[in-house]
């Protein structure tokens, strides 16, 4: 017997401290009959006994205490029911110190109720929370002007607050579904229309939040699947190579022609893969999916799988974005952070802070850093291209977080793609060139003495062991023929160049250091050989630019070929390019 | 997608993130219903495979049927099964059942301490050799830096405060008051040397969801959860001196589902039969010090 599922809706209630969040929530729970039997009376009696005025906040505290003892199983968060659906209220503290928690809560919500105290009016956190909701992409908002009893239910007070806050929200691009006056403590305009505020013609709060819609359906948007991983588990004779990830938007069927970005590799979906389930003929948003492809591709986690027939994503390494900063240390231009954008990760720098927004009044100024709890518009540059969408087109692939050291310290949404350009690298190379302490012993003098031109031989391929054997063999052959040659093994490089980053998975930093080392070796006139498995075009380009002006020889190692012919092939190429000058032999 | 599909998809996503980001990843398997669902979700995430070690902390006071069930499933599914133990405390008889220490101290020593040292690799780990069918001392002493645990937010108050990816410091301690932000499915996957991350793919599941999923997927669970004729069954499994069964006629998964839906247990905590939760600071203080 299948149970009929009632719709679940995640709601966040935000507001300045003491503007009445707990009262609104407590009263909603009480008036919708969502409290355990006798709970309300028990709290009222407890208040009477201790001669405290009753407050709904005590009710929530009592529920939380019960939760802590584990008595009420189903109230990990606050729940209430309307006639049409079940609500889950996510805890979102109002204090600025808890902004991190407020963001964690609000990011999971489908809609928000924002509370403003009628007597106090719009306060700093009212504005800050509005700004955060806008950045978190929560478009469905109802603004409640609470504690109307404290201003004698006067319409002009309500309207003044509405006008002020509406203007503020409009600048953030938020159009609230409604503003409504409320006296939550007295239940005025909560479940039923208020007689004391007969001047207000809209529906009461509960009816209003019942009008929130389930989030915009993403299935009609272009297909996007950020690749989480590619698996090949060989146990029990399994030979499937499965590309896995979660569908963020759009739909897919077996046989679909797909393209991966930024690599632009393409294939056809051969099969849907799933354990212990009949696979359907169509998958849509939310599904954690798996596919086999024809042909089998080597794609990296972080690539965006798309349909060839649909709008492609943007591919760039520079973009304009809005960022909110939660880190204790400020966000600084030029400092290296880690960008996490869907499943992609890349080193990232703030190239320029365009403006820092005071989230509490939306005034913007120019600053050299972004401090905790501030919002800023910035230009970012990543070390490598990433594939993404603008947040207004497709939210799930248009937002990112920034990691400072070990912590997620900022979040942001992408506003504009600025294409592909490596300004930081350009600047670094220009600086290096300008400051290089040039020896009077020119490269020409060195190559005359050594009978060779310097070169950087870079072995790449999918079989790491084969690469390392080839590197050694090539070094030996050239050495025995009298060349000045050095093979830098991967583990030597890791335990030397990369020793301070032990255990960290920072491939880009490793390549950067390797490129600088290659520049030194080749400046000294040596032939440097090294091997890096699975290099892509962008990485080769980075190494080539860092090793400049020496010649880079990239050797894509074929898996089958024997060692000796590989060594001979490379030697021949070096001779043909006049790296090895024959008359010395 | 229905509610169970959505829960499954999120758990699978978390598993795959954990697998991709942590080189030394392990999963705690307590043999209970939650961690068995967790194991099943690992097979969902990795297409029938379980490419990570399962770690069991054996207090020696587990109900014997639990250990038998563990080894049976480990052999059948070819699991990479590892267990650890506080052998010193057991040798010296520093346990609650022997009357030398109180319940919380016993839990702290046989579970939290054993877990901490087994994860760190500074106490022996015993790994199942599938060729001989016997457990042997594991040569792998590397610390696990990512540990997947089957806790659920609805079980108990302190667990409702958890994140999906929750950091533990060098002493295994959990700082409840300063937790990392978690938004847009971006989790804390970077961690300082010496610290580790607890990963919670089941956070959003309820007790009812667990049984619904066991029913839908036909997942084998130990029959300690069922009434086997004495009108009693276990609702939560642990060490036998501190775990009490509940009165129930439910003899199979369907009957447990029917029982839960009547609301019979709506006002009785799932872990009510677990005595250590009630002593002293209870589960939250145990958990701050590294308990699962």
What do these coordinates show?
- The complex is a heterodimer of chains A (585) and B (292).
- By secondary structure, chain A is α/β, with parallel strands linked by helices.
- Helices cover 28% and strands 26% of the residues of chain A.
- Chain A is built from 14 helices and 23 strands.
- Chain A has a six-stranded mixed beta sheet, with helices on both faces.
- In chain A, helix 1 crosses helix 3 and helix 10 (464-480) packs across helix 14.
- Chain A is elongated.
- The relative contact order of chain A is 0.07.
- The model of chain A is unreliable at 68-76 (pLDDT under 50).
- Chain B has helices at residues 3-21, 33-45, 64-76, 87-91, 103-120, 207-217, 253-261, 282-288; strands at 25-28, 54-57, 81-84, 126-129, 134-137, 146-148, 165-168, 196-199, 232-233, 246-247.
- Chain B is globular.
- The model of chain B has no long low-confidence stretch (mean pLDDT 86).
- The longest helix of chain B is centred in the N-terminal third of the chain and has 19 residues, at 3-21.
- At the A-B interface, helix 3, helix 4, strand 7, strand 8 and strand 18 of A face helix 1 and helix 2 of B.
Enumerate how many helices of chain A there are, as a single number. 14
The multimeric state of the shown protein is heterodimer
Helix proportion of chain A: 25-40%
Protein structure class of chain A: alpha/beta
Low-pLDDT windows of residues of chain B: none
Mean pLDDT of chain A: 87
Counted by DSSP, the helix tally of chain B is 8
Radius of gyration of chain A: 31 Å
> What percentage of amino acids of chain A are in beta strands?
25-35%
Counted beta strands of chain A: 23
Q: Tell me the Rg of chain B in angstroms.
A: 18 Å
Helix percent of chain B reads 25-40%
* Biggest beta sheet attributes of chain B: 8 strands, mixed
Could you state the order of secondary-structure elements of chain B as H and E?
A: HEHEHEHHEEEEEHEEHH
């Amino acid at each position: 017997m299948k149970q009929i599922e009632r719709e679940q809706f995640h709601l966040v209630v935000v507001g300045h401290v003491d503007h009445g969040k707990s009262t609104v929530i407590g009263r909603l729970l009480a008036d919708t009959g969502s409290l355990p039997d006798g709970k309300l009376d028990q709290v009222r009696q407890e208040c009477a006994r201790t001669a405290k005025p009753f407050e709904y906040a005590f009710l929530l505290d009592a529920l939380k205490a019960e939760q802590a003892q584990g008595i009420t199983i189903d109230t990990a968060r606050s729940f209430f029911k309307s006639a049409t659906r079940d609500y889950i209220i996510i805890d979102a503290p109002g204090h600025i110190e808890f902004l991190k928690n407020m963001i964690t809560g609000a990011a999971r919500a489908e809609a928000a109720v924002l509370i403003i105290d009628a007597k106090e009016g719009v306060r700093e956190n009212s504005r800050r929370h509005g700004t955060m909701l806008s950045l978190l992409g929560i478009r469905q908002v109802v603004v409640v002007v609470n504690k109307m009893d404290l201003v004698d239910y006067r319409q002009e007070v309500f309207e003044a607050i509405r006008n002020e806050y509406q203007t503020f929200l409009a600048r953030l691009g938020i159009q609230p579904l409604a503003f409504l006056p409320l006296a939550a403590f007295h239940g005025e305009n909560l479940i039923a229309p208020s007689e004391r505020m007969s001047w207000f013609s809209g529906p009461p709060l509960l009816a209003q939040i019942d009008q929130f819609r389930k989030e915009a359906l993403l299935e009609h948007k272009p297909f996007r699947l950020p690749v989480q991983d590619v698996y090949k588990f060989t146990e029990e004779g399994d030979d499937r190579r499965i590309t896995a990830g979660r569908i963020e938007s759009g739909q897919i069927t077996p046989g679909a022609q797909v393209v991966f970005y930024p690599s632009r590799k393409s294939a056809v979906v051969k099969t849907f893969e799933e354990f212990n389930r009949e696979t359907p003929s169509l998958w849509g948003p939310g599904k954690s999916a798996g596919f086999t492809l024809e042909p089998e591709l080597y794609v990296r986690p972080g690539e965006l799988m798309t349909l060839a027939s649909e709008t492609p994503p943007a591919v760039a390494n520079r973009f304009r974005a809005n960022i909110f900063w939660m880190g204790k240390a400020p966000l600084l231009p030029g400092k290296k952070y880690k960008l996490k954008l869907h499943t992609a990760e890349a080193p990232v720098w703030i190239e320029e802070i365009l403006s820092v927004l005071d989230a509490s009044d939306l005034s913007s100024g120019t600053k050299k850093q972004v401090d905790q709890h501030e919002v800023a518009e910035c230009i970012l540059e990543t070390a490598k291209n990433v594939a993404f969408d603008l947040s207004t087109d497709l939210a799930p692939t248009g937002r990112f977080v920034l990691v400072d050291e070990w912590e997620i310290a900022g979040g942001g949404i992408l506003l504009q793609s600025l294409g592909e350009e490596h300004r930081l690298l350009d600047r670094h190379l220009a600086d290096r060139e300008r400051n290089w302490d040039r020896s009077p012993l020119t490269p020409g003098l060195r190559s005359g003495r050594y009978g060779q031109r310097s070169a950087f031989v870079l072995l790449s391929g999918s079989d790491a062991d084969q690469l390392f054997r080839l590197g050694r063999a090539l070094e030996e052959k050239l050495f025995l023929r009298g060349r000045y040659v050095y093979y830098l093994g991967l583990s030597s490089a890791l335990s030397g160049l990369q020793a301070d980053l032990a255990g960290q998975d920072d491939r880009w930093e490793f390549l950067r250091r390797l490129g600088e080392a290659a520049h030194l070796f080749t400046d000294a006139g040596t032939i440097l050989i090294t091997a890096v498995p699975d290099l892509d075009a962008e990485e080769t380009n980075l190494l080539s630019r860092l090793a400049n002006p020496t010649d880079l020889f990239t050797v894509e190692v074929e898996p089958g070929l024997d060692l000796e012919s590989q060594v001979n092939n490379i030697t021949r190429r070096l001779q043909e390019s006049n790296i090895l000058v024959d008359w010395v032999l | 997608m229905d509610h169970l599909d959505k829960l499954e998809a999120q758990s699978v996503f978390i598993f795959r993130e954990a697998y991709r980001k942590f080189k030394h990843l392990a999963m705690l398997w307590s043999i209970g219903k939650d961690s068995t669902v967790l194991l099943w979700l690992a097979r969902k995430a990795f297409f029938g495979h379980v490419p990570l070690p399962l770690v069991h902390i054996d207090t020696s006071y587990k109900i014997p049927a639990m250990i038998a069930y563990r080894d049976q499933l480990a052999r059948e599914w070819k699991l990479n099964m590892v267990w650890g133990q506080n052998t010193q405390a057991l040798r010296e008889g520093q346990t609650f059942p022997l009357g030398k220490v109180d319940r919380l101290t016993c839990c702290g020593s046989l579970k939290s301490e054993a877990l901490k040292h087994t994860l760190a690799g500074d106490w022996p780990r015993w790994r199942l050799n599938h060729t001989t069918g016997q457990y042997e001392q594991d040569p792998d002493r590397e610390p696990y830096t990512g540990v997947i645990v089957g806790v659920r937010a609805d079980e108990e108050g302190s667990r409702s405060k958890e994140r999906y990816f929750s950091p533990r410091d060098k002493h295994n301690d959990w700082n409840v008051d300063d937790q990392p932000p978690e938004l847009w499915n971006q989790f804390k996957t970077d961690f300082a040397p010496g610290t580790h991350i607890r990963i919670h793919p089941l956070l959003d599941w309820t007790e009812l969801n667990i049984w619904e999923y066991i029913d839908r997927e036909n997942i084998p669970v130990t029959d300690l959860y069922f009434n086997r004729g004495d009108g009693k069954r276990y609702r939560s499994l642990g060490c036998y001196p501190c775990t009490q069964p509940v009165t129930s006629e439910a003899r199979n998964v369907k009957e447990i589902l029917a029982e839960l839906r009547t609301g019979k247990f709506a006002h009785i905590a799932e872990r009510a039969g677990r005595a250590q939760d009630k002593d002293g600071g209870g589960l939250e203080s145990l958990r701050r010090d590294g308990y699962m």
